Give the backbone structure.
Amino acid sequence: MARKIFVSYKHSDDSVENLNGETTARAYVDELIDLFEGDEIYKGEGDEDLSEFKDETIETHLKDKIYDSSITLVLISPNMKDESEKESDQWIPWEVSYSLKEITRNDRTSQTNGILAIVLPDEDSSCSYFLEENTCSACNRRILHTKKLFQILRDNMFNIEKPTYSNCSEHPPNTVYKGYSSYIHSVKWSDFIEDTDKYLDRTKKIRDNKDDYDITKIVKD
């Protein structure tokens, strides 16, 4: 059965590595469309200001697509977040929020989508602006710079209700999570492209265990 995937991204973010001669996040969406040939891919909106739309317009542009999907991919890019605008007036938080909700229409209720954050490389071919890997030689600790993200993404990372921690002697106790501690798991673009099915299956597994997580579904201003 074909997968139905929604992609949330900042259309015009041009602070990413050149891909196929293009220097915006949209180029990576086009790559995903080619990668998922045979699957149904729903793309997020562009750079319109949500504050100028009425609810019924948002319904037309956004909700139908997400309602029909089961996995949402959020492309993390260096300038995905506009600091000058309220988060509730930007597309990505809306898309993530609706992806997480269970919506009933005509006696059918959608499931909470599994959500995977895919970190795009910046202009220097690095993902370290958000994700740093193998920062400890003893336990291969990963560091996520979550302050760069929208609140709804931050709230759904490191949100497992009963966490387990590494006993690595290089760190203070109970500071390094083990396992899938985030409902929204993060992966570098290069790793995702190398083994796409592994990360989609992991996202589905986390979704199937969603009751283990304290999930935030509301966008905060």
